[in-house]
Amino acid sequence: MTYAHPEYLVETEWVAAHSEDPKVRILESDEDPLLYSIGHIPGALQVDWFSTLQHPLRRDFLTREQFEELASELGISNETTVVFYGDKSNWFACYALWLFQYYGHQNLKIMNGGRLKWEKENRPLVKEVPSYQKTTYRAKEPDKSIRAFRDEVLRHSNDRKPLVDVRSPKEYTGELLHMPNYPQEGATRGGHIPGAVNIPWAMAVNEADSTFKSADELRTLYEDRDIKPDGDVVAYCRIGERSSLTWFVLKYLLGYPNVRNYDGSWTEWGNLVDAPIEK
Amino acid sequence: MGQPCGRTDRKVTMSLPAKLQEIVDDFASMTREDKLDTLIAYAETFPPLPDWLKDKRDRMEPVPECMTPVFLFGEKQPDGGIHFYFDIPPQSPTVRGLATILANGLNGSTPEEVLSVPADFYQPMNLQEAVSSQRLNGFHGVLAHMKQEAVRLLEKPSE
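Structure tokens for the assembled complex are given below, as produced in the milestone run.
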């Protein structure tokens, strides 16, 4: 079995060969945003999941107009192929891709292995920040078929439809309210959304070089836990970043037609009055 | 330290070690971009772990509040001041930068001086405009564990 949509994935060699291709824009999206300044792939620009992609006031993403402005500043036209890469096995690269998909951009790709693989192959990293000519960009209406909101998740849970909790096992059982490292973004209650199965996001990637596991391995990983291709699947984590990686895997590597990312995730659910919780 | 009305015979607990105060003041007057650039510069001067501490994480103080594996170790110098060593991977420049600020600001301070640094000393630096809140929490955690080391060195009779 091969990946269902291999066009969503490129290897490091491909990126190296296209770093000066005017039809391609390479974007770095990291958990640690200083990494870009320390050194990045030649020709790449940076998007930061928080300071670039989030709405400056509300807990939400950029509005459609703000997204158009961002794409224009990055020199991205509606025809540009956009390739994302980043640290931490491409967590935040998948998060950025998810947002671009939400606003209807075509031709999106993840660089398999992200920063880690690029570094391991001793490929060049530069400090020079390139500048590209501004474009006129037209975003589409948000594609709500890839994003789940809390009321939909409640119905989903009540109907016992497939839900994947991609956090660590201790977050799932409620022993921890957050990863040991994110106390500021915790929740007042621990546990998981009723009916959710726990498939930690990291099980989808190879630890050695951050690349995605093979299609066969991935299929076994999810299907054995009852996350099947014909299901209407919702994935969540703590703030929706780890689950965007799982969303990417299910949607494009395995080709599940109906997968949504619940970006409110546990920091919303675990604070929501009257929301049902299982431990 | 120019305490306008502090009595000199009493310890003024609000004052920071001079080097740390200087860094706090510098950051307080910087733009967001300057803060980021300065943090990168600090990350780039992050000192390598000395050989005698390599692979000695079991002897070091872990900082579980950080997203990345962070270990630190305080060594008492002949003059009574502490020298702090850090083991932080290069993939985490923000944490390296923040740890270097604390090392530069507090190396040479006595355990008592380290313990008297207020936990929120960095508020005037206005770092939240450059660094995410969870990472500031890590910063908080690093200081707390430097204080643990200070307590250990305080209890240890000096050689």
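The interface with chain A takes residues 36-37, 39-40, 43-44, 64-68, 91-95, 97, 132-134, 136-138 of chain B (CB under 8 Å). The two ends of chain B are 30 Å apart (CA to CA). Further analysis is deferred to the final report.
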